[in-house]
Amino acid sequence: MANPFSLLLPALVPSWNFFDVIAPSPRVEYALAETRDAVLDAWTEFRPRPQRLSPAAMLARLFWNPRWNESLFLVSCAERLVEEPTAHGEDEIFRRIAADLATQPDAAPWLSFRLLFIDPTGERDVLYQTAPRLRADIDVR
C-alpha cells in the first residue's frame, strides 16, 4: 500500500491552480412591484453578508451553516447564468428569493432579480436582469 501520508497530502495542501480565474462574484439583488410593467427602481441585496460576526458565531459557522452553503450555491447559479442563461438557473434563484419572501405575505406580488458585479472602484455593472414573475406562480418547495 502506498504511503498513507501521500494520499492525505492533497487534501491538506490546496492546489494553487484550483481556481481558473479569480474574479468578483455576482451579487443578487431583487425588486418587488405591484404590477408586471412597473418601473423597478428599489433593488434590495439578497442575503447580504453580515457586517460583523462574534468569534463564537464564526466558530459555530465552521460546523453548521446551511444558509451560507445555499448562498454559495446561488453564487454558482448566478455565475453560470451570466455565462450561459438557462431557465433552470433563473428558476433556482427565483425559488430561493421567493422562499425567503414567503414570510412577508403582504409584499408586492411581482418579483424580479438582477445580477451585478461591483468592481474594486465601486462601479456597479448589471450583467443580467429577469422579467418580473408573479410570486404566487413560483414553486418554493
Please characterize this protein's 3D structure.
It is a single chain. The protein is 36% helix and 18% strand. With 141 residues, the chain is α+β, with helices and mostly antiparallel strands. It has one domain (32-137). Strands 1, 2, 3, 4 and 5 form a five-stranded antiparallel β-sheet that branches. The longest helix has 18 residues, at 66-83. The relative contact order is 0.18.
What is the N-to-C order of secondary-structure elements (H for helix, E for strand)? HEEHHHEEE
Number of strands: 5
Based on CA atoms alone, the radius of gyration comes out at: 19 Å
Helix content: 25-40%
How many separate structural domains?
Answer: 1
Mean pLDDT: 85
What's the tally of helices? 4
Q: Into which percentage range does the β-strand content fall?
A: 15-25%
Shape: elongated
**For the report, how would you describe the main beta sheet?**
5 strands, antiparallel
In short:
By secondary structure, this protein is an alpha+beta fold.
Topology:
Layout (H helix, E strand, L loop, with lengths): L3 H9 L14 E7 L10 E2 L9 H9 L2 H18 L3 H15 L8 E9 L5 E6 L3 E2 L7
Helix pairs in contact: 3-4
Main attributes?
alpha+beta, 141 residues, 5-stranded antiparallel β-sheet
